[in-house]
């Protein structure tokens, strides 16, 4: 059988990758939270924070944390299906052992984070950033970033302690200035949220 000619593709621009904007090499970063055991063989349902869990290559070392209780563990398996994400750990081989994992955070060392493309951010990088409107009005500070099935959302807390959720989409978030720790949101798009 004759060889097929190789298809020529236009050269692709290499995407510029960056490390996190804050120094996290020695810090532990939460990448997910365990909800409940699934089945009898130690599998646990997980709420993921961003895409990091999906990028891990098991087996790998992680830290499981609840309150101030830190426990090293080996992540043996990561699964994704229609119901969501799940994990299995070498040290927790059955449902009884997996019950202790409920409400624990899955954490990795910051040095294990993969570089990401420009204009993308890890959730922890956004926490603590000031938020202002496009007209310059100060709204508050990012307290947390929530990973919902349809969209990620910034939880912004104002000076009075009032919390608001702002979807992390281009029409709502105009810019993120990691250097100056400032997020600008579109006042017109978020009029109902910002009142």
Descriptive overview:
This protein is mainly beta and 195 residues long. It folds into two domains: 17-113, Beta Barrel (Elongation Factor Tu (Ef-tu), domain 3); 123-194, SH3 type barrels (Roll), CATH 2.30.30. 9% of the residues lie in helices and 44% in strands. The strands form three sheets. The protein has a six-stranded antiparallel β-barrel with strand order 2-3-6-5-4-7. Strands 12-11-10-9-14-13 form a six-stranded mixed sheet. Strands 1-8 form a two-stranded antiparallel ribbon. Strand 5 (69-81) and strand 6 (84-89) form a beta hairpin. The termini are far apart.
State the CATH class of the largest domain: Mainly Beta
Describe the largest sheet. 6 strands, antiparallel, barrel
Strand residue content: 35-45%
Shape: elongated
Number of helices: 4
Radius of gyration (Å): 20 Å
Instruction: Kindly identify the CATH topology of the largest domain.
Output: Elongation Factor Tu (Ef-tu), domain 3
Q: What is the count of distinct domains?
A: 2
